[in-house]
Design a protein that fits this description.
It contains two helices and no strands. With about 160 residues, the chain is mainly alpha-helical. It has one domain.
Amino acid sequence: MRLSPSDVRQQQFGEKLFRGFDKDEVDRFLDQIAEDYESVIKENALLKEQLTGYEERARSTAELEKTLQDTLVTTQKLTEEMKTTARREADVLMREAQLAGEKSLEEARAEEGRILTEVRALKRTRRQLVEDLRAMLEHYQRQLAGEVAESAGDDGAR
């Protein structure tokens, strides 16, 4: 069992008749021991309080460190996810641009085909018009020649 400072102060010793201790000296010594013991107990209590505070700070620091590490890991994962998403979006945009380019190329080729078909049709129409015009001119020339011959025949018959 531990002794308290008051236990030390209240300690009584038996006295011997011839060889005893000086009671006042023993009491002073016991008081001094009690005071020293009391200051050691107070210092011990103070150190225990400080230890509790340090342990609490250490726990807080450990929790903060864990939170920071978790945040760092989460940030790294998020960064990787963002990179992956950006790559996917870039791939999708590239594919869409490629498809749009191919579609535009197909539309241009189709337009080219339509234009070539129209050009051929216009050339046929032009040839037909030229032939019709030539035929009409020949017809008018024959008519005119017939009228001229008829007119000359009328002039000779008069």
